[in-house]
Amino acid sequence: MKLKQLTEKINYEILQPGGWDPMQLEISGVKLDSRKVEPGDLFVCIKGAVFDSHTIAADVAKAGAVALVIQDPIDMAVIPSEVAVLHVENSRYALACLSAAWFGHPARELTTIGITGTKGKTTTTYMVKSILERTGHKVGLIGTIEAVIGDKHYPAPNTTPESYTVQKYFREMVEEGCDCVVMEASSQGFMLHRTAGFTFDYGIFTNIERDHIGPNEHSSFEEYLECKKMLLKQCCVGIVNRDDAHFDVIVEGHTCLLETYGLSEEADLRAEDMQLVSRPGYLGIAYNVKGLMDFPVEIDIPGKFSVYNSLTAIAICRHFDVSPEDIEAALKDIRVKGRVELIKVSDDFTMMIDYAHNAMALESLLTTLREYNPHRLVALFGCGGNRSRERRFEMGEVSGKLADLTIITSDNPRNEDPQAIIDDIKTGMAKTDGKYVEIIDRKEAIRYAITHGEPGDIIICAGKGHETYQEINGVKHDMDERVLIAEVLEELK
After folding, report:
1. Which pLDDT tens digit goes with each residue over 156-180?
2. CB-CB contact of 101 with 168 (8 Å)
3. Are residues 130 and 91 in the same domain?
4. Considering the chain, what percentage of its residues have pLDDT values greater than 90?
5. Residues 193 and 215 in one domain
6. Are strands 435-438 and 458-462 parallel, antiparallel or unpaired?
7. What is the residue range of 14's domain?
8. Residues 136-162: pLDDT tens digits?
9. Opening angle at CA 442, ends 441 and 445, nearest 5
10. Measured by CB atoms within 10 angstroms of the end CB, which terminus of the chain is less buried, N or C?
11. Domain final position from 102, 124, 143
12. Residue 74 belongs to a domain with what CATH number?
């Protein structure tokens, strides 16, 4: 592909032509990883949180790159004269546009659905995929757990991958016969321009709460919100939760057609007459859809947040002319790994796995489960090492207040002493009258929960969710809570 074709959608300044007409340069690949550079490649220098590839521009040129895209100054004296150098305002944004061009703008061949928000993104993407596939669509998915393209599943290192990977996945989806894609769009994804280079057909904003604020994420809630809001300037139709306390700020400056959903009478699509559904080993919720559609729904995932998630999915699928019958049937069957995931253990009590790994998520989860009036609410969780100690104090305090019994265990201790992390959680517990036991080994903690389960209990294993590993001293060891539960049940026979 000619450099001229690649750079059609970006503004740049040619610092070094690298030949008589750099735009006629034939490019054999677009790269952002210096270890993968091959002769003929265009390399995009990225200034990351840990490493700045501007510093190795000369090495990349030596490896065979024929063109460099830079954001910050480099030592031009060490760049061979035959290498073209283009300066751009933001190299991450440029990468997104270059990647879209390199893969032939695949988003133009798909109906693209982007979902952002503090909570609900993962569950909603799977709900949308399930509903649309029931009606004959072939749907690609990109999210926190994985990317799904046909029968292939790719583990996800980030909620929203680098823009090059996003475009690569889109092209693969088109080749697999997908006609649409649903993806989680994170605030980091917007801030780092991973979703640039195309326009979403539908953009969904689920909610916004104080999260992802810290040294390696966002400097403030205001910045976090502004990044999330970018979706409503990068989509044709925006669908927003009308009940969110920040609704007016969220929609401020939007450039899309706007629709709303929620419990409020002001919402275009509403949920009414909510009822908790509880049977031995089963928790769910039922409600009636009103407004733009009218039909009843029951889902096998408990809690008010499940109403919002499913209503979000309905608001999207309405645009695909999906019938109420197909929506009802698809929602009835939906299961999302690690999101209030019911694991059948006993006819006497209920056991679930959830990804809740901070105080806000744990509080929401336990408050929701408390509404089902369990005999006891049991919370099993730990906290990650090399992360904020404040999170441990907060999670301990939340569980101490809301759970009848807390089982404190290990969760990705990384390079920290697991006992030290548990002691921090206990510091938070000490602010409450909550009962707890501490069992470092997670499998043994699960064994304790199962063997001490009482009729009517709800036991929630929190923190790991979809994860299938335990990170200890920098090494990831296989560890899936579903496997641990199955092993314990087998050993108890």
Report:
1. 888 889 999 999 999 999 999 999 9
2. no
3. no
4. 85
5. yes
6. unpaired
7. 3-102
8. 999 999 998 899 999 999 998 888 899
9. 90
10. C
11. 102
12. 3.40.1390.10
